[in-house]
Specification:
Strand order of the largest sheet: 2-17-4-5
Shape: globular
Distance between the termini: 57 Å
Largest sheet: 4 strands, antiparallel
Number of strands: 18
Length: about 325
């Protein structure tokens, strides 16, 4: 790996611009061109996550793009599609499988966990500069009504959670939130924690920790068919978005990265033919650099235990 600073001079020459934010955007696009071409080592990660909802649900960090595999409490498991509940051989919504399985629940969840009981929500502000910043929670209250906020101009959709540094209490007219559908947050200096105030303890239940650059947080969830306290996830990372000259580039080939930068420039000029040539060579150099560093390990074929096979002799096959 290397830093953006290591290629900054070449990047300014290739792009022909001096606007730092624009160069960083182009560099982010250059990495994306290469990243989508193969299974690169710089995008592989592993994380241990504590489960919620009776030990059958985990919410993945924002850097998780694609889940490769899940060990449920240390046990290897089989991954299932989001629509597997509707499959004729699937468990449906009532039955449970005897195997170790996990199911992708999609990536549109605004909080780490669902509210177990209707509660009032509060925000814990970490930096004094973030006092008064906007944090709006959308969803429904305990009576089934959509959340809203009363302002001088009338009612507006969504509940505006008070963001006061050093003070985390709901206002007098705060609704009792039963379900959160999405959250819209203003850019902040520090992180903001969203939590409940209920009978679970003096600090309630932590719902999410929003990073400063998160505007509309969306997290992916994994449903487990077995209760456990933790799960280990192998995943593909999201493509990086560079914001500083000191950010790290998760690639091995510096020349390949610069060729990808030339491809981005050619695309911006409408020269698709030249862009394709640069893009292919950039991906080739990166894949070659990675192949040279990979050990000759063996990944065996996975099989399902058939110690109790199903008797199919009486099946009516037409």
């Amino acid at each position: 790996m290397f830093q953006i600073e290591d290629v900054w001079e070449e990047a300014t020459k290739i792009s022909g611009i001096c606007d730092a934010p624009k160069i960083l955007r182009w560099l982010s696009d250059a990495v994306t061109l290469i990243a989508n071409k193969g299974d690169l080592e710089g995008w592989k990660g592993f994380v241990d996550i504590c489960s919620t909802d009776s030990g059958k649900c985990i919410t993945l960090p924002r850097e998780v793009e694609t889940v490769y595999a899940v060990n449920i409490g240390g046990h290897p498991s089989l991954g299932l599609h989001q629509l597997f509940n509707f499959h004729l051989n699937g468990p449906g919504d009532c039955n449970q499988s005897c195997d170790w399985t996990w199911q992708d629940q999609g990536g549109n969840h605004a909080v780490y966990r669902d509210l177990s009981t209707p509660s009032k929500v509060v925000a814990y502000v970490q930096r004094p500069e973030d006092s008064g910043k906007s944090l709006v929670v959308f969803g429904f209250d305990d009576k089934g009504n959509a959340l809203d906020t009363v302002t001088s101009a009338g009612r507006v959709p969504g509940y505006q959670v008070p963001t006061i540094y050093g003070y985390a209490m709901p206002d007098q007219v705060a609704p009792t939130v039963a379900r959160i559908t999405h959250v819209v947050k203003e850019m902040t200096v520090g992180p903001i924690r969203l939590s409940t105030i209920d009978s679970s303890g003096p600090t309630g239940v932590l719902l999410a920790v929003y990073e400063p650059d998160e505007r509309m947080p969306q997290y992916r969830r994994i449903k487990l068919n077995r209760s456990c306290s933790w799960a280990r996830v192998a995943y593909r990372k999201t493509n990086p978005i560079f914001t500083s000259r000191f950010d790290r580039v998760p690639l091995k080939s510096r020349i390949g990265f610069l060729l990808a930068m030339r491809a981005v420039k050619a695309y911006s000029e409408g020269d698709a033919g030249t862009a394709h040539v640069f893009e292919v060579d950039a991906a080739r150099l990166e894949i070659e650099a990675q192949s040279a560093s990979e050990p000759p390990t063996y990944y065996p074929v996975q099989v399902i235990d058939q110690s109790n096979p199903v008797d199919k002799s009486d099946w009516d096959i037409r």
